[in-house]
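Box S1 | Example of a co-folding query
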Amino acid sequence: MAKRSATHKIPDVEPVAPAITPPEHPADTTFVKNSIGENKGRKREIPEGLWKKCPKCAEMLYEKKLDENLAVCTKCGHHFKIGARLRIDALVNDGSFEEYDAEMVSVDILKFTGVATYTSKLEGYVKKTGLKDAVFTGCAEIGDHKVGLGVMDFRFLGGSMGSVVGEKLTRMIERSTEAGQPVIIISTSGGARMYEGMFSLMQMAKTCAALAYHGKRGLPYISVLTDPTTAGVMASYASVGDLIIAEPAAMIGFAGPRVIKDTTQAELPPGFQTAEFLKERGLIDAIVPRLEMKERLATYLDFLMAAKS
Ligand SMILES: [Zn+2]
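Box S1 (continued) | Returned holo structure for zinc ion
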C-alpha cells in the first residue's frame, strides 16, 4: 500500500502544480517551518498547531507527519478531512492539473439575510479559507488517462452546492464530454446552499443532465464520496456514478439521523449512514483508503476506458 506517501510533497511548502490557483491565505499552508535557531534561548514550548489529537484513537500526531500521510492517522487509519488542494496534489500526476473557471464567484441573487447576509458570509469564507467557492474543477492526468476532475472543499460554507459549484461542475462535465474524457468528482458536502434557495436546487438537475449526456457518449463517471457527503449533493451527482467509491468511515446520507429517526419513529441500525454500511447494501461499490486512491482510480480508469473502446 501507498509507497507514494513517503515521498509525497506537502503543498505550499514545495511548489505545487503550477496550474492550481496559488493559495491566498495561511489556512492553506499545512506546515510553516521556522528558520534554524529561531527559538534558541527561549523556553521550550509546544507550538500551537504542531500536534493534532486523533479523535478515534486519541494518539497525538505530529502535523508534519500527518500531512505526509495525507491526513490519515498513522496509528488507527482515521481519515481527517482534507482540503481540495491537498487532495488534487495527492491524486493527479505531478503538475498535470489545469484549472477551469478559477475566477468564478457566487453572487447574492436573492439578497438573502438571516443572522448575517449571504454577501458577508461569502466574504468571510473567502477570507478564512483562501478559496473562492466550494469546488475546484479542471482536467488532469491520473495514471495513463486524461480526466475531467471536480474536487469539493468542505471548509467553504460546509461544501454547500450553490450556483457556482453547479456551474463549474457542469462546465467541466461538458468539456469532458466534448473531449471524450472520463469524469471523476470527489464530493464532500452538507448539501444545497440555502442562501441561494431554488437556484441551488436547480444545480441538482443541471449537473445530472450533463452527466447523462456524458454517459450517452459511453464515457465513464467515477463518484468518490468523502466524509461527509449528504443531502442535495448525495441526491444528485454524487450518487449517479458508474462507479461509486468512498473513503473509509465516511458519513454518507441524505437527511441527518435525528430527522430520519423522528420521521420514521424507528430505531436506526448501528453504523447507519457510514460508507461501510452502504457498501454492504449495494449503494457503494468499494471502500478505498485515501493512500491507495490514486492507484485505484488509475486501475478503474484502465478498466472502464478499455471497456469503452
Ligand atoms: Zn488514530
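The chain has a mean pLDDT of 88. The longest strand covers residues 221-229.
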